[in-house]
Design a protein that fits this description.
The complex is a heterodimer. By secondary structure, chain A is of the alpha+beta class. Chain A has two helices and six strands; from the N terminus they run αβαβββββ. Chain B is of the alpha/beta class. Classes of the chains: A alpha+beta, B alpha/beta.
């Protein structure tokens, strides 16, 4: 459990981006949490309520979306959604796959007032 | 209203510091091992079993990560191992910034291998790259054979999985077939070693594995390798 430090990382990213874009008010923060990361979206949402106090996004709407894990197959070059945490291509059955997305968490975008 | 695309990773600061550590270790040709497990799987016992032998040929440094106390570093210091204890207090994992600070306690010109013993936890340490060449995961048979399905992220990131406490397997209901099957669904390539740290079973295999890593780093320090678990 380290969602509060991740929430503080969101704060730093959003404050930095707002400043670079000359904005003093952020209306919306969109966060993506990959299913294949060790973070709970619920706990992060709770931590965001603490982290946004006194920031440029104090009154912003925080949207946290979870993202499925996407695997790319080196045999058939297809991409599949990972099921049950099994590393297997659902098209050709090969286990020669790697994660292309869904293992990270990031601030996808923000909506600012200028 | 103005929409700004960021796609900025929440762990970008950790990842940047970890890259710096990785480059620094490459410059010094130091092989770095990041050991993860649940509490009590036997990480420190494994180190006690292999480090005296490795220390005869190589200069080993250990960073111990624990919530509280210096018990693990003290155990290794008794064996004349160069160990430094980090206390994370409430934090559930080690971060690159902690490793960076801990490294100031060592003379990097006099180290061949850095071993990082992470906080005992099967969840959070898996998300934090520390600049290592290899992730070694320790699992003990008393934890049960269903752990890969329960903790898929860490199992998928391990380069080597040590199955420890094999000497007591008869007293447990651990099914090695199920364990191997579950591991392979998550991780095709990781080596798996069945050992007993306290009995010394297969410690020679682990010693030669680490030795190979050290030699490889000495020979290939200008190449970029071993970062497939990093993004």
């Amino acid at each position: 459990m380290h969602e509060l430090s991740l929430a503080m990382s969101v704060r730093e990213i959003v404050e930095d981006a707002a400043e670079k874009n000359g904005s003093k008010k952020v209306n919306e923060v969109n966060i993506i949490v990959g299913e294949f990361s060790s973070v709970s979206a619920d706990a992060l949402e709770f931590a965001m309520e603490v982290a946004k106090k006194g920031s440029v996004f104090e009154n912003a709407k925080i949207n946290i979306k979870s993202a499925k894990t996407i695997l790319a197959c080196s045999q058939c070059n297809g991409e599949t959604v990972m099921e049950d945490y099994i590393f297997k291509c659902s098209t050709c059955g090969s286990t020669s796959v790697r994660i292309v997305s869904g293992d990270r968490m990031y601030v996808d975008s923000i909506d600012i007032e200028q | 209203m103005h929409y700004v695309e960021l796609e900025k990773d929440l762990l970008h600061q950790n990842d940047k510091l970890a890259e710096n550590i990785k480059n620094n270790m490459a410059d010094h040709q130091i092989f770095v091992l990041n050991i993860m497990s649940a509490p009590g799987a036997g990480k420190t016992s494994l180190l006690e079993a292999v480090l005296p032998e490795l220390s005869k040929k190589y200069r080993i440094a250990v960073i111990e990560g624990d919530i509280q106390g210096s018990a693990d570093a003290d155990r290794l210091k008794k064996l004349d191992i160069n160990a430094y204890q980090i206390n994370t207090h409430s934090l559930c994992h080690l971060e690159a910034s902690m490793i960076e600070r801990a490294l100031t306690n060592f003379d990097l010109h006099k180290i061949d291998c850095l071993i990082i013993e992470n906080v005992g936890n099967l969840v959070c340490p898996a998300d934090f790259f520390l600049g290592e060449d290899e992730v070694m995961m320790v699992v003990s048979v008393s934890e049960g054979h269903d752990k890969p399905h329960k903790y898929p992220v860490m199992f998928s990131k391990a380069d080597l999985i040590i199955l420890n406490k094999m000497d007591i397997i008869e007293s447990t209901n651990f099914d090695t077939d199920i364990f191997y099957k579950q591991v392979r669904e998550l991780n095709r390539d990781a080596g798996i070693m069945e050992v007993s740290a306290t009995r010394g079973t297969n410690m020679d295999k682990l010693i030669s594995h680490i030795e190979h890593g050290i030699q490889h780093k000495k020979g290939h320090h200008h190449h970029d390798h071993g970062d497939h678990h990093h993004h």
